Every structure is written in structure tokens, then in C-alpha cells.
């Protein structure tokens, strides 16, 4: 899943960060479900978003039917970082 998360993470290049990760699962019988997690602070890294997506997906395995589509979205968007006064890349100043 980390490779797939990359396209969603591109919004951070525009200075946006998200606090809510939502997983959408579409099954072979055309049913669909969503699972989401909202954090108190924004996701600061692509791996953190990927780990959250995998954690949301884990309870659904093994699926009774095939899965035809998975999607992950970021919402509750904010400009910059979740830490006031710190750069949007999550890097803390040394001095």
C-alpha cells in the first residue's frame, strides 16, 4: 500500500496537511464501506499515512469476497504543519 499512498501525499508539496485518513473499500459484489481515523495533529510523513491505512484495512482481512478497489484520502486539511511556528515538513529547528 505505501506506493499507492504516494499520490495522496502529493498535497503536502502544496503546503497542505491532513488530520483525517479515510479508507474506502469496494468489494466484488459492489458493496462499499469506509473507515476513518482522525488524529489530533496532522500526518507528518508518508509512512505514517501508509501505516494508518494498513491499520484501517487489517480488520477486514481475510475478506469473504474479493476487493475490487481501495482508496485512501486525507481530509481536515490545514496549511503548514500541525505545530505552530514549525516548518510544514515537520522538521524542528536546531537552535
Your description of this structure?
This protein has 95 residues and is α+β, with helices and mostly antiparallel strands. It has a single domain (2-75), classed as Dna Ligase, domain 1. It is built from 2 helices and 3 strands. It has a 3-stranded antiparallel sheet, with helices on one face. Strand 1 and strand 2 (32-38) form a beta hairpin. Helix 1 crosses helix 2 (46-57). The termini are far apart. Mean pLDDT is 79; it is low at 82-86.
Précis, in short:
21% of the residues lie in helices and 34% in strands. It has 95 residues and is α+β, with helices and mostly antiparallel strands.
Gyration radius, rounded = 15 Å
The secondary structure category is alpha+beta
Q: Kindly report the name of the CATH homologous superfamily.
A: DNA polymerase, Y-family, little finger domain
Helix content: 10-25%
Order of helices and strands: HEEHE
CATH architecture: 2-Layer Sandwich
Measured between the Cα atoms of the first and last residue, the distance is 37 Å
Query: What's the tally of helices?
Result: 2
What is the number of E strands? Answer: 3
Number of domains: 1
* CATH top level label: Alpha Beta
Shape: elongated
Topology:
Layout: H1 2-9, E1 16-27, E2 32-38, H2 46-57, E3 67-79
Antiparallel strand pairs: 1-2, 1-3
Helix pairs in contact: 1-2
Features:
95 residues; alpha+beta; Dna Ligase, domain 1; three-stranded antiparallel β-sheet; elongated
Amino acid at each position: 500500500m505505501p506506493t499507492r499512498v504516494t499520490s495522496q501525499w502529493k498535497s503536502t508539496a502544496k503546503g497542505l496537511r491532513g488530520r483525517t485518513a479515510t479508507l474506502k473499500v469496494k468489494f466484488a459484489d459492489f458493496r462499499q464501506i469506509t473507515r476513518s481515523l482522525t488524529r489530533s495533529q496532522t500526518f507528518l510523513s508518508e509512512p505514517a499515512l501508509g501505516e494508518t491505512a494498513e491499520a484501517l484495512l487489517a480488520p477486514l482481512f481475510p475478506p469473504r469476497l474479493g476487493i475490487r478497489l481501495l482508496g485512501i484520502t486525507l481530509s481536515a486539511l490545514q496549511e503548514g504543519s500541525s505545530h505552530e511556528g514549525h516548518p510544514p515538513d515537520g522538521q524542528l529547528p536546531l537552535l
